[in-house]
Structures are given as C-alpha cells and as structure tokens.
C-alpha cells in the first residue's frame, strides 16, 4: 500500500504520507485488523495463531517489499518499453498507428501549430508591422485558444501546467466512466423506489376508498 502511493518513479514513498488522513487511517485499521484476525479469529476465519518468530518473519517480508521497490527503480524502463511497443506494433498495427496519430495531434496542439493549406504556403510573407499595429491587431483579433491555452493575459503569478501524461488521462477517463455508471445505478434505484412508493400510495388510497364505500353501504 505504501509503495503504490508513488507511481511515476519517485523514490521517497513516504513523502506526504501524513497529508492524507484517509490513507493512514485505512492503513492502520488494516494493520490492526490483520493482527486481531490472526490472533483471535482461528475458528471464524480458519487460521492459526502465529508465534513471535512467525510475526518477525512476516514483518521482515513486509518491510522487504519497500526495499524491493527501491531495487526495481534502478531497472531502466526504456528497453522494456521498446520491447513492448514492438510487440504491440506487430500484434495491433491499426491501434498502434491510431495511437501515433493521436500523439502527433497532441504535440501539434501543445506547440500551437495549425496545419497549413497549399494556398497559405503560396502566399507571400507579410510586411513588417510596428509594435502599436501588432498590439491593435491582437486586441481586435485575439488568437484562437488551443487545447491547453489559458483565458486572459498571463501574469508573473500564472503557472502554466504541462498536459497530463497518457496514463493519467486514461485513469481519469476510467474514473469518470466509473462515476457515470454509479450515478446511473443510483438514478435507476431511485426511480425504482419512487415507482414502488407511488404504487403503495395508490393502493392505500384505493383501500381507503373501499373502506369508506363499505361503511356507507353498511349504514344504508
């Protein structure tokens, strides 16, 4: 759990660990719960108690995963990425070309480049303008915002962030899709509850009407 806090090659996996109370509360709960389950849950969870030596070995293996993470960080990623990209290129050539095309489009949008047509290439270079003319042109005809352009003028306090990597965008899209499915389930469950509630109200109204009709018949 501690190693999974850093996914982009950071070595200090403990950095900012106390800034996330949800993480260390859940981590502490899991740690204590495992000790209680192994110690007192022999019949319920079908496990046996551990001796002090066994607990020491288990803690040693747990701490060894932290050291193993540091060893894995020394392994270069580029050879493996080239190998996997070659396999991906051979197995899925269509998807590989599509991915390359999307990368080229993202790079072009990051640089602010726009595809030039043949007519634009044939045009002559514009004449030099003064600074006042350029300022007036930018005021009347502001440039079209790109994919990561900012709104308004940049100041000294403005921080221009780099676009997120492909993996981060994929995880963000995946989390958004999961939230959408959860919202759909909640809406369906709510509509079902409302339908059941309306049906019960109609049944209660019909019962009241029938009871009132029976009372009137008896009196008559």
UniProtKB/TrEMBL annotation:
Record's subcellular location: Endomembrane system
Entries under Gene3D superfamilies matching the protein: Calcium-transporting ATPase, transmembrane domain
Residues that span the membrane, as ranges: 21-40, 52-75
Basic and acidic residues bias: start-end ranges: 105-121
GO molecular function: metal ion binding; P-type calcium transporter activity
Organism, as annotated: Adineta steineri
Classification via InterPro entries: ATPase_P-typ_cation-transptr_C (IPR006068), ATPase_P-typ_TM_dom_sf (IPR023298)
Gene Ontology BP term (one): regulation of cytosolic calcium ion concentration
Name the record gives this protein: Cation-transporting P-type ATPase C-terminal domain-containing protein
Keyword terms, alphabetized: Magnesium, Membrane, Metal-binding, Transmembrane, Transmembrane helix
Region (Disordered), start-end ranges: 105-150, 201-220
SUPFAM superfamilies recorded: Calcium ATPase, transmembrane domain M
Domain Cation-transporting P-type ATPase C-terminal, chain residue ranges per copy: 2-72
Bilayer disposition of the protein: Multi-pass membrane protein
A GO CC term attached to the entry: plasma membrane
Entry annotated with the keyword Magnesium: yes
């Amino acid at each position: 759990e501690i190693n999974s806090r850093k996914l982009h090659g950071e070595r200090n996996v403990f950095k900012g660990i106390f800034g996330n109370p949800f993480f260390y509360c859940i981590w502490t709960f899991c740690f204590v719960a495992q000790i209680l389950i192994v110690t007192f849950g022999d019949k319920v969870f079908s496990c046996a108690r551990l001796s002090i030596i066994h607990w020491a070995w288990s803690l040693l293996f747990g701490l060894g995963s932290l050291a193993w993470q540091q060893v894995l960080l020394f392994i270069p990623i580029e050879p493996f990425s080239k190998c996997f990209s070659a396999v991906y290129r051979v197995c899925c050539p269509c998807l590989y070309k599509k991915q390359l095309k999307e990368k080229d489009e993202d790079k072009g949008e990051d640089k602010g480049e726009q595809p030039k047509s043949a007519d634009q290439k044939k045009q002559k270079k514009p004449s030099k303008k003064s600074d006042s003319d350029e300022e007036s042109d930018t005021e009347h005809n502001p440039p079209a915002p790109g994919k990561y352009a900012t709104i308004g003028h940049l100041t000294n306090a403005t921080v221009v962030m780099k676009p997120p990597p492909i993996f981060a965008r994929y995880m963000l899209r995946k989390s958004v899709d999961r939230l959408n499915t959860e919202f759909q389930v909640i809406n369906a469950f709510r509509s079902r509850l409302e339908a059941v509630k309306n049906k019960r109200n109609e049944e209660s109204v019909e019962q009241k009407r029938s009871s009132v009709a029976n009372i009137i018949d008896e009196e008559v």
